[in-house]
Amino acid sequence: MASILEETGPPRWRARPSGFPGLARIIVEQQLSVASANAILARVNEATDDLSPEGFLVLGEEGPRALGLSRPKIRYIRALAEQVTSGTFDFSDLGTLPEDEASAKLEALLGVGRWTAAVYLLFCEGRRDLWPKGDVALLAAHQMAGGSFGRADLKTFDSWAEEAYAPHRGTAAHILWGKIAFERGRAPL
């Protein structure tokens, strides 16, 4: 970590809006390049009053598709918007829960897995001690810094990182994401 920080400088903490806009954005970004996600997000934000749940629902079934969203992502975000507008899911409850319970509550939502829940809690709730399991960019950054885990060792790396970086797992993740951005010649997200 020290050698990465010498090279990249201090990490830039990713802070995003919480609630529906934050989680919907993370769902849009799943498995997309930064450029593709940003292009889609710009269109979605414009069409939905900055990604409001009501604005998303007004688009109907095909409107989001025309903006570049895949059918699964439309289904996930639409289900989330319906739960938020009906009051069956309330983001304000997350702040009172410990990490594991907050993660489980998010993971109960359609289209939200462990990685998405961790990223939401890190970026949108400002939590500091979570490790986003399954993030291949973190493993790649670790390898770039001379780490010993190979590509096929992602689960082993995640287990190691959860122990090695506690109680600063989120900070370690941001340092590693900064390394990826540095190596690719772009500013951290």
UniProtKB/TrEMBL annotation:
The keyword DNA damage applies. GO terms for cellular component: cytoplasm; protein-DNA complex. Pfam families: HhH-GPD (PF00730). It is an enzyme of class 3 (hydrolase). GO terms for biological process: base-excision repair, AP site formation; DNA alkylation repair. Residues 35-180 form the HhH-GPD domain. It catalyses: Hydrolysis of alkylated DNA, releasing 3-methyladenine, 3-methylguanine, 7-methylguanine and 7-methyladenine. Keywords: DNA damage, DNA repair. Its EC number is 3.2.2.21. One of its GO terms (molecular function) is DNA-7-methylguanine glycosylase activity. InterPro entries: Alkylbase_DNA_Glycosylase/TA, DNA_glycosylase, HhH-GPD_domain. This is DNA-3-methyladenine glycosylase II.
